[in-house]
TrEMBL record:
Broad EC category: transferase
Pfam families listed in its UniProt record: TMTC_DUF1736 (PF08409), TPR_16 (PF13432), TPR_8 (PF13181)
Transmembrane regions listed in the UniProt entry: 132-155, 294-311, 331-350, 362-383, 389-406, 418-436
Keyword Transmembrane helix: yes
Annotated SUPFAM superfamilies: TPR-like
InterPro entries: O-mannosyl-transferase_TMTC, TMTC_DUF1736, TPR-like_helical_dom_sf, TPR_rpt
Pathway: Protein modification; protein glycosylation
One GO biological process term: endoplasmic reticulum unfolded protein response
UniProt KW Ribosomal protein keyword: no
GO cellular component, one term: membrane
Protein name in UniProt: dolichyl-phosphate-mannose--protein mannosyltransferase
Source domain of life: Eukaryota
Subcellular location(s) of the protein: Endoplasmic reticulum; Membrane
Length: 708
């Protein structure tokens, strides 16, 4: 538009600003069925909706990937040097290791470490609350970002950014705050990486936009310019803009290249090693079918944005069967996806409405560009579908959805009330689905079982359900799920290993040996399966095979203290005492707090009459494990045999049941009686203590009756 110069000269700056704003506002914005809120109130509303959706996950447990990224990650502990964060991956493994997934997220790990320090340990509430708050902040900032993407950059007379699409940006931000596909990123603690990615993107974008305001913005009136200059630019101004644009682009390109180079130097040139199980389409030999399956994956991601009802913590291992022929009916979905994308793109490029072109173009860019690293085009990724990678891309979808509703209101104004009801209903459904899904993420039991109805063909789902049941002691049910996992995926070595372990504990040794033997034949470097196979073979008295299995485990995992411990047990069963002691010593060198290895060394030396050596080993162990009652008992027994009663009666066993047993064994019956009574006073239900006490009482009565 243009204003006559004479009008501009007679208008005050504030009136001129209001005039231009009225003419420049997005034309469909006033049709959006939402109230026009003040900026602060709008952000508070969006933040409260975000909190409402996910607040019930605040007291959840550490679930799924949280175990490896947080619970078992040594980089979180204050005793670990802070520099390790910059050389290790997200899971705490060195980036140069062959087993590393090369997921380099040091800032995310740093926030985990901060949570650990503030809580004084692994308290999940603090971790969850920070995720929820981050999502609320990101959702609120989405209003500013959407406003710029829809209406462009505009400033008032106070140099503040003006929102030319207040209702559309608010609606899009509400959709983003309540979208159920975000549950994995918010309720799952490891999703903080996606939250921080979105937050830093927003801050970078808003900071970049703010840098445009040089005192002559669209709605500013500098002192040395008349009000009419708000809409007029000279050739000199355009040259400055062009020069500035080139400078900014050059700086951003150099910064991006510097970051890529730094990451390349840190993580090395080797790509992460993924298996066919992680991403089967990427291993398809036929390139045409590979492309078809990739596009089918894209359509599944689009469906999760459109209808986020079928959500699952894992989409691998048969959850999404491969398309193996062009005649597969599922190819219709990828054709539909591309028809929609092409239609939107044509509207973005060819529409006569500049505001429509702008909104569609930037909405599509925001939808597609953040998804590119997960699309298998540039490199192979380690998943089929991952809801967390849609966190930022969903912002583009929410922007397009809000635009579509505004367009519908403009075109069919008489149905505006119906659209208002539909919007309210959709938001309510989103909030309810978020609340339900975030509740499922609170525990591993509810998370894993919720996936059975979504991905019944997913072997990993059955495996995780079985593992959770086994951890809670329900091994009978766990066996059923492990067997189903192996049936669905016959080469699932981890399911075979866990099933073999349960069968071993149930003394079903023959089947356990078969399963474990099959596991190591499929994956020869599976060290844990080799060790478990050795344990089973030892129980079957196949000593030579067991020894070979143990050494195979150690060959594939050099630092394997538990395997050295079990190897020592094998040698002890064969009366190879020196070999057993050497194996247990290796276990304690690799793991100084390996209580069982220390205790077995003391017992073996005791049984073979090497009491002096047993005493030295026991004292060495107690320096490292001063509160280990098992080692105390074994050492006290040795000291008693050496007739060092005063030492063995030291503070280690003041009123503890083992001291009574030792006195009983040494024939000090009155002291044994005293300690049994003190022990029962402290714990009347102590197992075996009352039986031993009654036995001692009977023996004392017999001695009194037989006394002259």
């Amino acid at each position: 538009f243009s204003l006559p110069l004479s009008w501009c000269l007679h208008l005050s700056p504030s009136v001129l600003v209001r005039c231009i704003m009225a003419l420049s506002e997005v034309h469909w914005d006033h049709q959006i069925p939402l109230p026009k809120l003040a900026p602060v109130r709008a952000k508070l509303t969006v933040a409260l909706v975000a909190l409402l959706c996910f607040i019930n996950s605040y007291d959840g447990e550490f679930v799924f990937d949280d175990s490896e990224a947080i619970v078992n990650n040594k980089d979180l502990k204050p005793t670990t040097p802070l520099n390790n964060i910059w050389t290790n991956d997200f899971w705490g493994s060195n980036l140069s290791s062959n087993s590393s997934h090369k997921s380099y997220r040091p800032l995310t790990v740093l926030t985990f470490r901060l949570n650990y320090l503030l809580a004084g340990g692994l308290q999940p509430i603090g971790f969850h609350m920070l995720n929820i708050v981050l999502h609320a902040i990101i959702s609120a900032l989405m209003i500013d970002m959407f406003a710029i993407l829809i209406g462009g950059l505009a400033y008032d007379e106070k140099d503040k950014i003006v929102n030319l699409a207040p209702k559309t940006s608010l609606l899009a931000a509400l959709f983003f705050a309540a979208h159920p596909v975000h549950t994995e990123s918010v309720a799952g603690i490891v999703g903080r990486a996606d939250l921080l990615c979105a937050l830093f993107f927003q801050l970078s974008f808003l900071t970049y936009c703010k840098a445009f305001n040089t005192g002559r913005g669209l709605f500013t009136t500098p002192n040395n310019h008349s009000p009419c200059t708000v809409i007029l630019y000279s050739t000199k101004d355009c040259d400055v803009v062009r020069t500035g644009l080139l400078t900014r682009l050059a700086l951003m390109a150099l910064g991006g290249l510097a970051m890529l180079y730094a990451r390349w130097r840190i993580m090395g040139t080797g790509p992460p090693a993924f298996t066919e199980v992680d991403n089967p389409a990427s291993f398809a030999e036929n390139i045409f079918l590979r492309i078809v399956n990739y596009n089918y994956y894209y359509s599944l991601n689009a469906w999760l944005l459109l209808c986020p009802w079928w959500l699952c913590f894992d989409w691998s291992m048969g959850c999404v069967p491969l398309i193996k022929a062009a005649t597969d009916w599922r190819t219709a979905w990828l054709l539909l996806l591309w028809c929609v994308l092409i239609g939107l793109t044509s509207q973005a490029l060819c529409s006569q409405d500049s505001q429509r072109r702008r909104t569609l173009t930037l909405g599509l860019v925001l939808l597609v560009v953040p998804f590119l690293p997960a699309c298998n085009i540039f490199f192979r990724v380690g998943f089929v579908v991952a809801e967390r990678v849609l966190y930022l891309s969903s912002a583009g979808y929410c922007l397009l959805l809000a635009y579509s509703l505004g367009h519908c209101c403009c075109r069919w104004n008489k149905y505006k009330k119906l659209v208002c009801v539909a919007v309210l209903l959709l938001l309510c459904v989103y909030v309810a689905r978020c609340a339900l899904r975030s509740h499922q993420w609170r525990t591993e039991q509810s998370l894993f079982t919720s996936a059975l109805s979504v991905c019944p063909l997913n072997a990993k789902v059955h495996y995780n359900v079985g593992k959770n049941l086994a951890d809670r002691g329900n091994t009978t049910a766990a066996i059923r799920y492990y067997r189903e996992a192996v049936r669905l995926h016959p080469s699932y070595v981890h399911a075979m290993n866990n099933l073999g372990n349960i069968l071993k504990e149930r003394n079903e040794l023959v089947e356990a040996e078969q399963l474990l033997s099959k596991a190591v034949s499929i994956q020869p470097d599976f060290a844990a399966a080799w060790m478990n196979l050795g344990i089973v073979q030892n129980s079957l008295q196949k000593f030579e095979e067991a020894e070979l299995s143990y050494w195979n485990a150690i060959r594939f995992r050099k630092k394997y203290p538990d395997c050295y411990y079990n190897l020592g047990r094998l040698y002890a069963d064969q009366n190879r005492h020196l070999d057993a002691l050497n194996a247990w010593r290796n276990a304690t060198v690799l793991k100084p707090d390996h209580s069982l290895a220390w205790n077995n060394m003391v017992i073996l030396l005791d049984n073979t009459g090497n009491l002096g050596q047993a005493e030295l080993i026991g004292r060495e162990a107690l320096k490292l494990l001063p509160s280990d009652h098992t080692i105390m008992f074994s050492l006290a027994n040795v000291l008693g045999k050496l007739q060092k009663y005063k030492v063995s009666q030291h503070k280690h066993f003041p009123f503890f049941p083992p001291s009574a047993v030792l006195y009983h064994r040494w024939g000090k019956l009155e002291l044994a009686k005293k300690h049994y009574e003190l022990s029962l006073k402290l714990d009347p239900e102590a197992p075996g203590t009352r039986d031993n006490y009654n036995m001692l009482r009977r023996k004392l009565d017999q001695l009194q009756r037989s006394a002259p």
